[in-house]
Write a structure and sequence with these properties.
Elements (H helix, E strand, L loop, with lengths): L3 E4 L4 H12 L4 E5 L13 E5 L17 E4 L12 H18 L4 E5 L11 H14 L4 E7 L7 H8 L3 E4 L5 E2 L4 H10 L7 E4 L5 E2 H11 L6 E4 L1 H14 L2 H13 L14 H8 L2
Helix pairs in contact: 1-5, 2-3, 4-6, 6-9, 7-8
Length: 282
């Protein structure tokens, strides 16, 4: 396999991509704002390179000789004043421009399931604007659309540690989040696929109620789930938009909106959410 560049290599998914790259003995570059966070990864086939994705000049020449870029670049809960448009859109656009200049064959971008239907959210709007750029770039591409990461489910676990989980509506909406190690396999398999978009989720399709129960049991708590009226969901979104900064309300807004419908994608992988919860509370 030819050289692979992983952008956003210190994030939840990025670290699993680096692990997979090393295990497969693939030549690669791990691009990160802070390469010290990659200290645990050592391989003769891996280069660790500092890259400020929001500063295009810092990317000059970094992708020379690279066959495929896999980008997971995006804001989660950063605290440096950058917006979704700065990172999820513009930083990836900078990376795409450098990829084209370097003659990179393929660009794989990790977005989100149903992101194109949630463009009213700033995080999804930024991601989908980049998707539009990628589709029109002329470069070969694949967009990966996971139904949600296991790490996203820590919101349930955080509530559970307090003794109860709050859900909107009846809690019967379903999703199948995917573990980073399983998703990394999907990303690498996309290197040689002709598929333009891949929707993927984990092996278990679970209701919000079932996830809440898992989180409470893993936390050693009694099953206490509070179902809140649906109208409070919209009110909560309006409240966080009004009184919190974008970096704070963005993840909350997305979480509250995604709770309103099923987020189920084709099933893949072997990792179970209950095992992830059990490890996370240790």
């Amino acid at each position: 396999m030819k050289k692979i560049a992983i952008a956003g290599s210190t994030g939840y998914l990025g670290k699993f991509l680096v692990e997979h790259l090393i295990e497969s003995k693939t030549e690669g570059i791990a691009l990160a704002r802070n390469t010290k966070k990659l200290a645990a990864f050592n391989s003769e086939n891996l280069q660790k390179v500092k890259a400020e994705f929001t500063q295009p000049e810092s990317l000059n020449g970094l992708l020379n000789g690279v066959d495929t870029v896999i980008s997971t670049v995006g804001i989660t809960r950063q605290k440096d004043g950058l917006t979704y448009m700065d990172v999820d859109y513009q930083a990836n656009k900078n990376l795409l421009t450098e990829a084209r200049n370097a003659g990179v064959r393929k660009f794989i971008y990790v977005s989100v399931l149903n992101g194109q239907n949630m463009r009213q959210l700033k995080i999804c709007d930024a991601k989908e604007r980049f998707v539009d750029e990628l589709k029109n770039s002329g470069i070969e591409y694949t967009i990966i659309r996971p139904s949600g990461f296991f790490s996203d489910m820590k919101d349930f676990l955080d509530m559970a540690k307090g003794g109860r989980v709050y859900l909107f509506g009846n809690g019967n909406k379903k999703l199948n989040p995917i573990h980073g190690a399983d998703l990394a396999k999907v990303c690498f398999s996309a290197i040689n696929t002709t598929d333009k978009e891949i929707e993927v989720g984990g092996p278990e399709i679970l209701s919000h109620n079932e996830i809440a129960e898992m989180a409470l049991r893993a936390s050693g708590k009694k099953i206490k789930i509070v179902h809140l009226p649906d109208f409070l969901q919209k009110a909560s979104i309006g409240f966080v938009r009004t009184f919190f900064s974008q970096k704070t309300y963005g993840p909350i807004e997305f979480f509250l909106t995604a709770l309103d419908f099923d987020m189920v994608a084709p099933q893949f992988g072997t990792h179970k959410l209950n095992d992830f919860f059990s490890v996370s509370v240790q």
